[in-house]
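Support request, please re-run this one:
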Amino acid sequence: MTNNFPENFLWGSAAAAYHFEGAWDKDGKGPAVSDVVPTTQDKRTEKPEPGNLKHRGVEFYDRYKDDVKLFGELGLKSFRTSIAWSRIYPNGIDEEPNEAGLKFYDDLLDALLAEGIEPIITLTHSGEMPLYLADNLNGFANKEVIDHYCKYVETVVTRYKDKVRYWLTFNEINGSENMPFFYAGVSQNKNSISEAQMRQIYFNIFLASAKATKIIHRIQEDAMVGCTTIQGPYYPLTSKPEDYFAAYRDNRDRLAFIHVQAKGEYPSYKLKEFKEKNITLDASEEEWALIKENTVDYIAYSYYLSGVSAADQSASSKMTDVVNVISEKINPYLEQNEWGWSIDPIGLRTTLNVINDLYGLPQFIVENGHSQIEELEKDQDGNLTVIDDYRIKTLSDHLVQLNEAIGDGVKVIGYTNWAVMDFVSGTTGTMKKRWGFIYVDFNDNHEGTMERYKKKSFDWYNKLIQTNGDILF
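Re-run finished. Output below.
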């Protein structure tokens, strides 16, 4: 097998502010949506309450210097993280930004660059909208929030334009329907959101992303701007034509989120669907033009699993309360992890090729990984570690298929797996669901030293990067 990874491939890893920074109210930071969601799935508290693991994270805010040195030792060429919006504008409506927050990210970016690590910055990750904007303006259900978001973007990009080239406007925007509060800051009861209102929320996010893209390109001409979605193919439950068509429609609906970003317009079938359902978007000609004229430079997405579609919905009902789990029906040809997620490396190659055929833009895999309940153990030399051969296998299998897709002619900028280290899980709000190359000694009972330990996969990924993927073959 030929190694197709280009010499400048951005091998990396990922995290996000609310997952690992902690310091939720330190140095002027305001409360964010995640600070009132102690577990997940929009199950919020009225105000931030003790016991929310996200408040402490894994103390990256206070330990970042040592952690970034570890990232350098890991050999990362890139690192994706986010800027906590409420660390910059504590309430989202503030006149002036919080200088302490801005300085923290100055120092973090400088530390990454000193290690030769390219920052990939998500401007706002899911869960990171200032709580004030969610509770008082109903998040992206309200177009006024777009203006506050754009002010934040202008501040951040102006400040860091000489340190960051790759920007992501949002994270996994197509998760908003299942989790409107967590992803879009929409504070009204989920059951009260009509289909028409949900389509408007999505339009508002597309508009905000386009406006942010325009701002970034104005400030920084050489910037590369993307926006992430959740991707992964749907397969028909059977070879019945009806099931194939069901899978086709599910795939089309998922890709529609990329279509708007890459083409600057809604696919025709979606507009026809709106007309049939009497859905009229609050969208001016100027706003449509902004979306059309400010498309992404690259297509970024999370890839974790694939799903199964059936014409008979009772045979394949959708799970609407678990992030990234896209169908209840089990694919008998794929292994499942501890959380019931299918492990589908070939699906990644398929997804890369489909997106390339449709849109032709460079792609960036910004999340992909393996989570498992883990405990420290001793290796043959008596050192504390985790022997995570299963993580090495899962990542290897996916990277082999990524290499094949590059060989197919797909241009891929980089790969930042989820995640660089263990931290609070977004899908469970716990520490027990561990993703990282680095084990963090902290548990769901708020116990532990917070010490960092290299897992077996740490050395494996370092060798992978050093050989530019050669060890896969």
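The longest helix spans residues 195-219. Residues 316-324 have pLDDT under 50 and may be disordered.
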